Amino acid sequence: MDEIASLPWPVGVVSGVAAFVLIRFGVGAWFTAVGGSLLGPLGEQIGPLLAPFAWVMMFGCWIAAGVSWANARKRRALHDTRSDLDSLAEISWREFEMLVGESFRRKGYQVVETGLGGKDGGIDLILSKNGRRELVQCKQWKRRQVGAATVREMWGLVDHHGADAVHIVSVGGFTPDAARFAAGKPIHLVTGRELLERIRAAQAAAPVGVPAAKPEPSVSPPCPICTGTMVMRHNRRTGEPFLGCARFPKCRGTATIGA
To answer: Does domain 85-202 have CATH number 1.10.8.50?
Structure first.
């Protein structure tokens, strides 16, 4: 179920139907076809006996598909509401991994969230694109730089996992020693500012069928709830621009442009 939840949600829906048909009808048909005179008669009986298990498997896959859909929606929301370095640091480490994964998806990568990294590091994401396999480690350290030891450790995992490159994403940046070790190798050190630039570039690209964003007002009003910074957003249904709090989803303050 965890594997299915990590895949696009339509895969989970189709897998549920396939599992039901295979268990409910496929097993019985197999016994009938190859069981001979001894086991063949069981084919007509085993299907109904396995029916409860078939239903459980199908609904289990559909639940995993629902989890996948919810996670995809959360990833999009995390990505589309980041506005500064503070907004990268205020989310949880797990949400930061989801955010980084979404940023790579917007660049055309297929992303698998491994769950192997955990809070203290490791392989957090596996990327695939154009036949290449690349590893990602996420470091949500705002006041601490990633050192050479961490970079060496990730470099050692490249050969072990048959990868072509490794990306290390850190909000707080990297030490000079880490940068020197990565030089000339397929090691991509991504700082928080570089990640933020990627996110802003993707946010600026208007979705298909949605009108281009109007210029942001030179001075935006403070959030009516928390008095924080307001940023330009678009209504997902109508495409109309509005101002929303940069701390979303913790704060849901909104304002009409020009108000």
So the answer is: no
Fold of domain 210-259? N-terminal domain of TfIIb (2.20.25)
CATH 2.20.25 boundaries in the chain: 210-259
Q: The pTM is what?
A: 0.62
The residue with tokens 């709830």 is 225
CB within 8 Å of 237: residues ≥ 6 apart = none
Rounded CA gap, 122 and 29, in Å? 46
Indicate the helix (H) or strand (E) that contains 27: helix 27-34
Looking at residue 46, its amino acid is I
Whether the CB-CB separation of 103 and 195 falls below 8 Å is answered with yes
**Helix (H, G, I), strand (E, B), or coil: what is residue 74?**
helix
Instruction: Report the relative pairing of strands 132-139 and 165-170 from DSSP bridges.
Output: parallel
pLDDT tens per residue, range 119-154: 445 788 999 999 999 999 999 887 788 999 999 999
CA distance 85 to 169: 13
Residue 43 confidence (pLDDT): 62
**Strand order through the sheet with 110-113:** 110-113, 125-129, 132-139, 165-170, 187-191
User: How many angstroms separate the CA atoms of 53 and 56, rounded?
Assistant: 5
What is the C-alpha radius of gyration for the chain, rounded to an integer number of angstroms? 24
pLDDT at 208 over 50: no
Helices 192-204, 93-105: inter-axial angle, 10-degree rounding:
50
- The overall average pLDDT reported for the chain is 81
